[in-house]
Amino acid sequence: MDTKSFDLFNMIVLYLLIQLFENFPKPIDIDAKSLGLNAIPKKESEREGEVWNYMNLAGDTVTWLQKEGFIEVHNVAYGSNYMGVRLTLKGLTLLGYTPLKSETNDKLSTLAEEGKKVLLEGTREGATEVVKQLFISSLRYIPQAF
Question: Given the DSSP bridges, would you call strands 99-101 and 108-110 parallel, antiparallel or unpaired?
């Protein structure tokens, strides 16, 4: 199985959720193409194919996050401009109140803090691990069958 699209998805998810966390509670406008460009790790930004892959996948990523209930979108214009984007309570709790032990020290940090570190380092592996933790944490919001 080719995991390349998952790797790109993870970087875009991480970048967007961190932006929304830093701006909370203020809704922000997101242009999907710009989102894709901004999520590219520095070392990949010079590869033209990667740039287009990120730009094309960003809109689908925003839509998926909205449908899964992590973000709310007030309006969409021209297919790729998302206006009034904000974390839902589910998304905010996921980023702000889920402690992790950092690999660099024993101090607990939020997934948002871990995500910022990964974005600075620009590693796909790190993004995959943090996004995996995000989605594992989200499982506590799924209603349990009796």
Answer: antiparallel
CB 20 within 8 A of CB 38: no
State the total domains in the chain: 1
Residue 73 lies in domain:
4-141
Provide the mean pLDDT of the chain.
78
Q: What is the pLDDT of residues 72-95, one digit of tens each?
A: 999 999 888 999 999 998 887 777
pTM more than 0.70: no
Q: Is residue 146 part of a domain?
A: no
Residue 140 CA: distances (Å) to CA of 5, 35, 107, 113: 26, 28, 24, 21
* Unique residue bearing structure tokens 């933790």: 133
